[in-house]
Amino acid sequence: MISIETLKNRRNKLAQLINIPAILWSGKAPSRNFRANNYPFRASSHFLYFAGLTLENAAIYLEKGKLTLFMDNPSPDSTLWSGKMRTREGIAEEIGANDAYPMEALKSKIKGVATIAVQDRFTYQQQCQILNRSLPSIQELIDIDLELVKAIVTLRSTHDQAALKEIKKAIEVSVNAHKIGIKSTQKYSTEAEVRGAMEGYIMSQNMTCAYNSIVTINGEVLHNQTYNNSLNSGDLLLADVGAETDLGWASDITRTWPVSGHFSRSQRDIYDIVLASHDACIEAIKPGIEYREIHLLAAKIIAEGLVDLGILKGDAETLVEKDAHALFFPHGVGHLLGLDVHDMEDLGDLAGYEAGRKRSKRFGLGYLRLDRPLKAGMIVTIEPGFYQVPAILNNPNFQKKYHQDIDWDTLKQFSDVKGIRIEDDILVTQKGAEILTAKLPTQASEIENLCQA
Ligand code: GLY
Ligand code: MN
Which of 93, 178, 198, 406 has the fewest CB atoms inside 10 Å of its own CB, making it the most exposed? Predict the structure, then answer.
């Protein structure tokens, strides 16, 4: 439970930033196939930030630091299917609400009120209906909604102690899940079994996954969500798996390990380049530094390493300027982490990008999710990688543009490296950075030891 004091503090801080009232809806679980069979419910993160509790079909009205809860009490019938449920009055007390009313009463509070559209269609329609206006896309927000969004971005970009405690809880479980995955791979024969072991542990801790797990021997498929493959000696297994606490706070970790327990020479060479990039980025993190600089540093170290191996040709900085690194490292070096794994990405780039900045059209920068100077209290991921993506490497336009920069014969010697990513969660501190995920090793030799443990 987030304390009432923390929740009130967040509400007061919002009131210091804007003097318009806001309504935030929690949302509703969508049906899978019929009304009583739903997908698991996950409350909207903006709602969770101020209400602190996962409540379905609820809304909060925030004004001048005060919170009014709107939700219906459970119907008498619902006890049969759902057991005894908490009442509106009980919940109001738990979250330090100033008032509590049935949902129907929300209609009287809509004058000049700002909001943020939720993701589920049912609640989104309810929002438009109750407010009696449309809720346009994030690029076309009306003034008051934009003001609310900007204030919430300011608040949620850095974390208070309660948020940090939750994120640390999620991280501890994720670290253990990864250790279980790495240690148990040799007794399993499929990706699905390793995924099951990792997610099973997360569930056993009464947590859920913060996003769909990636557990794959095809690490070059960046968001691979199939688990059909058998594991063979010689494969690398990439697992991007993160737990979420019952209050909705996320973690996000990736490790890549050899199915056999031993990296081949070529796998180890590339692994060490990705790790050097990862370590240098973390070392460089401090308040004030531009996250874009961290991304470009990751790119430079990967380019340098690939030049040393003879895969890329030329000077690393020049290669990065022409985006040649992105042939093998096509995504951004990381993102904000908080209640959402890509925190506040429902707000488009309003959270990730400093005001006035836009996504670059450059191949090597276009997927950068965060382009702001870092501040103490932010949590970011650092997740450089190396991938051989057929859609990139076989693209005739890229082949033509970069034909002088790649040694294709040398690259063939690395055909057993499809995808490697190493990802940790980093708190920006007053002086530098704290690796919140430090209990999970990154060194190749430590990973091999864990494989054999
Ligand atoms: N964990 C998946 C991602 O960061 O995109
Ligand atoms: Mn990530």
Answer: 93
